[in-house]
Amino acid sequence: MKRIMITNDDGINASGIIRLAKSVKKYGEVWVVAPDVQKSGASHSINLHTPFTVAKADFPVDGVRAFAVSGSPADCVRVGVLNILPQKPDIVLSGINFGYNAGSDVMYSGTIGAAMEAIFQGIPSIAFSEGTNDGYIITQMYLDEVLSEVMNMELGTDKILNVNFPTCDPKEFKGILRNRFVSKGFIFKDHYNCKELADGTKEYMVEGEYCENAEEGSDLKALFDKYISIGTIKNLE
Q1: Rounded Cα gap, residues 55 and 40, in angstroms
Q2: CA 4/CA 64 separation, integer angstroms
Q3: Sheet holding 175-180, edge to edge
Q4: CA separation (Å) from 83 to 10, 34, 89, 198, 229?
Q5: Helix H or strand E segment including 165
Q6: How many other CB atoms are there within 10 angstroms of residue 191's CB atom?
């Protein structure tokens, strides 16, 4: 049986991390060390000059020990491995993220940053993400099947395994594609809306225009074509 540590960037109360913890209990001893609040977009950032807090947390999955951390997702992995767990975990799982982590978005993702920190600590890791528009439907239907495959893989510590579940009607779902590479494309073409405040300061807020821009064989192309995408990310390249 494995010692499994789970984290995310959506916060310890997010639906995805609860569903993931429930599904992986059969593989071993589960610990949750996750941000106390939403930390999306934190990438691989860590706290160096300010302290953060760690508190035991109530978690709605029996037998899971859980801790809420005021730091970043990568902080969660570091403090979990170095201080909280009695021994190093055998594997770190990050997710299930609300929203795809594929294409250019992997560079910004706290979910991916946490998984990357795990391999820095010498621990294999897998990131899980799903679409925001009812993406959980496909996740719930196929999560156990995917876990039975990836939890038995011989994973190294030179790259993370990255799993994304598509948003689609189950009747449109086409299957699982493996060995997907990270697309250079993107899901949203961003721009900034500007508003001038009373004191003359300008306030900017990002807004994205949805587009499907991806190469054949890539993670994004698989998702756009309604497949589960399984691929790897090495050093965020």
Answers
A1: 20
A2: 10
A3: 54-56, 65-69, 28-35, 2-7, 91-98, 125-130, 160-165, 227-233, 175-180
A4: 22, 14, 12, 47, 34
A5: strand 160-165
A6: 11
DSSP β-ladder status, 125-130 and 186-196:
unpaired
Paired tokens of 58: 């109530």
Burial (0-12, 13-18, 19+ Cβ within 10 Å), 55? exposed
Q: How many Å apart are CA 29 and CA 62, to the nearest integer?
A: 11
Ramachandran angles phi, psi of 157, nearest 5°: -120, 25
Cα separation values, 61 from 25, 30, 86, 161, Å: 9, 10, 20, 25
Q: State how far the Cα of 135 lies from the Cα of 164, in Å rounded to an integer.
A: 10
The residue among 176, 177, 18, 175 whose CA lies nearest residue 98 is 18
In the prediction, which pLDDT does 55 show?
98
pLDDT digits (tens, 9 = 90+) for 115-170: 999 999 999 999 999 998 777 899 999 999 999 999 999 999 999 999 999 999 99
pLDDT in tens, 7-44: 999 999 999 999 999 999 999 999 999 999 999 988 89
Peptide bond into 233 cis (omega under 30): no
First to last CA, the chain: 32
H/E stretch holding 111 reads helix 110-120
89, amino acid identity: P
